[in-house]
């Protein structure tokens, strides 16, 4: 992994458009023409992927990335990234990799030090240009929207709606993978932290011949356990799974070929996507996914680059480390959105409530249940992992209490209220106190 770039002040004649170590002059008329071309390409485009929301978990030794399952050469891509933490904690970055193929790749990286870098790798040769940003939101919990336009040998990028610069794509014009990335630079990631992204969408210019999204070859209901299928090369299978709000599953394929697995919300948004399982092999795994609300979700099985197919099994199971009680069917899925202060609820014996709470990285919250019966309280991260849990208040009594929990990331947390062993129920008040 490369180290972060350094930069020099932008020459007055170059505007904020672009500069390199030699500060190549870009005339205002060229900038205007490039911008007009990029905006014309954007206006005349059709969506071919997304929108997709997801999370990039920071790792110690490598960047985190999520790839789209389309691989155009010419495209418009846009995605909104959320800052994983404040600058006081350290630097962070986000990036878009594209035209990743046998020839090489392009990478556009945005750093919290207000520097962008565009890097091209072709074989053993690497080149890059960099520049300074004036409109990057670096606030804790803030967000930035990146748009990249690629057409033939030329490209451009925008940040937060502002045109930044042209991009020279002539070294690699072939189709390839497109991926969102976090922690591109060493020292620009914090292990375990999460960079969220939303509305990752790719469009294709109307004047580009594209392979249309294949129609579903199979449309069928999916059940818990094994679902057998056979994919024809160049098509996709679409399964419908009816989920409970708060339900947690592992979703994976079993096949002798390279699968791609997508989980799609009732409103059409891609919630999770996987090519190759983190456990090894070419089959796909979406691990510990939590359904935010009850509804009919679509599970798509495809071949990598739509070039593979054959017999497969689609598995929907409980995670290996499943909680001892079943996921609840909320009174109203979800029970509601938690606010700082008092939040009232009521559950029947054997049931539970699931609340959603929009937390900020570094926010410190105390969760306190007031009830006349024996409660349990579990707080889940957006990726389904348990962040904290409590049965009885350490200070005494059978109500649950989690004191001064520091939230690790800006994301939607799931807060589950149940009774001990599902043996009681009734009214309760869940208090959130911010320190």
Attribute tags:
3 domains, six-stranded antiparallel sheet, single chain, mainly beta, disordered N terminus, 435 residues, Jelly Rolls, 1 helix
Note down, in words, how this protein is organized.
There is one protein chain. 4% of the residues lie in helices and 50% in strands. It has 435 residues and is mainly β. The protein folds into three domains: 12-205, Exo-inulinase, domain 1 (Jelly Rolls), CATH 2.60.120; 216-317, Sandwich (Jelly Rolls); 336-434, Jelly Rolls (Sandwich). A six-stranded antiparallel β-sheet has the order 1-12-3-8-9-10, with helices on one face. The longest helix has 16 residues, at 28-43. The model is unreliable at 1-31, 207-212 and 321-333 (pLDDT under 50).
Could you give the topology of this structure?
Layout: H1 28-43, E1 45-57, E2 64-67, E3 75-82, E4 93-100, E5 104-111, E6 115-122, E7 125-132, E8 143-151, E9 154-159, E10 162-168, E11 177-182, E12 194-205, E13 216-221, E14 225-231, E15 236-243, E16 248-255, E17 259-264, E18 270-274, E19 285-290, E20 295-303, E21 310-317, E22 336-337, E23 341-347, E24 353-359, E25 364-371, E26 375-380, E27 386-390, E28 401-406, E29 411-419, E30 426-434
CATH architecture of the largest domain: Sandwich
User: For the residues shown, what is the average pLDDT?
Assistant: 80
Identify low-pLDDT runs: 1-31, 207-212, 321-333
Widest beta sheet: strand line-up: 1-12-3-8-9-10
Helix content: under 10%
Strand content: over 45%
Report the span from N to C terminus.
39 Å
- CATH class term of the largest domain: Mainly Beta
Total DSSP helices: 1
Supply the helix-strand structural class.
mainly beta
Coarse shape: globular
CA-atom Rg in angstroms: 24 Å
Number of domains in the coordinates?
3
CATH topology of the largest domain: Jelly Rolls
Q: Give the beta-strand count.
A: 30
Largest sheet properties? 6 strands, antiparallel
CATH superfamily heading of the largest domain: Exo-inulinase, domain 1
């Amino acid at each position: 992994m490369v180290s972060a770039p350094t930069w020099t002040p932008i020459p007055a004649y170059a505007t904020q458009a672009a500069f390199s170590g030699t500060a190549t002059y870009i005339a205002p008329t060229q900038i205007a023409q490039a911008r007009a071309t990029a905006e014309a390409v954007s206006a005349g485009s059709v969506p071919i992927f997304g929108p997709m929301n997801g999370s990039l978990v920071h790792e110690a030794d490598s960047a985190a990335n999520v790839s789209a399952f389309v691989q155009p050469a010419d495209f418009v891509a846009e995605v909104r990234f959320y800052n994983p933490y404040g600058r006081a904690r350290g630097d962070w970055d986000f990036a878009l990799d594209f035209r990743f193929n046998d020839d090489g790749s392009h990478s556009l990286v945005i750093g919290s030090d207000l520097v962008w870098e565009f890097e091209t790798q072709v074989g053993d040769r690497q080149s890059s240009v960099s520049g300074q940003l004036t409109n990057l939101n670096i606030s804790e919990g803030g967000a930035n929207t990146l748009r990249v336009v690629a057409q033939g040998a030329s490209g451009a990028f925008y940040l937060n709606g502002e045109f930044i610069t042209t991009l020279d794509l002539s070294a690699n014009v072939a189709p390839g993978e497109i991926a969102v990335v976090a922690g591109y630079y060493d020292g620009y990631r914090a292990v375990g932290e999460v960079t969220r992204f939303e509305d990752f969408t790719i469009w294709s210019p109307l004047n580009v011949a594209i392979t249309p999204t294949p129609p579903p070859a199979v449309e069928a209901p999916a059940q818990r356990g094994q679902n057998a299928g056979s994919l024809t090369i160049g098509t996709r299978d679409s399964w419908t799974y009816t989920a409970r709000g708060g339900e947690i599953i592992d979703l994976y394929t079993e096949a002798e070929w390279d699968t791609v697995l997508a989980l799609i919300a009732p409103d059409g948004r891609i919630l999770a996507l996987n090519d190759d399982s983190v456990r090894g092999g070419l089959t796909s795994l979406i691990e510990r996914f939590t359904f935010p609300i009850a509804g009919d979700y679509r599970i798509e099985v495809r071949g990598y680059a739509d070039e593979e197919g054959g017999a497969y099994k689609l598995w929907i199971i409980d995670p290996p480390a499943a909680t001892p009680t079943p996921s609840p069917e909320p009174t109203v899925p979800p029970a509601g959105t938690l606010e700082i202060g008092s939040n009232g609820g009521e559950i029947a014996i054997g049931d539970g409530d699931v609340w959603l709470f929009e937390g900020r990285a570094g926010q410190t919250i105390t969760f306190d249940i007031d009830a006349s019966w024996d409660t349990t309280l579990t707080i889940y991260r957006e990726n389904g992992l348990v962040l904290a849990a409590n049965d009885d208040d350490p200070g005494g009594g059978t109500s649950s209490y989690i004191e001064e929990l520091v939230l690790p990331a800006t994301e939607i947390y799931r807060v589950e209220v149940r009774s001990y062993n599902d043996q009681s129920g009734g009214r309760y008040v869940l208090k959130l106190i911010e320190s």
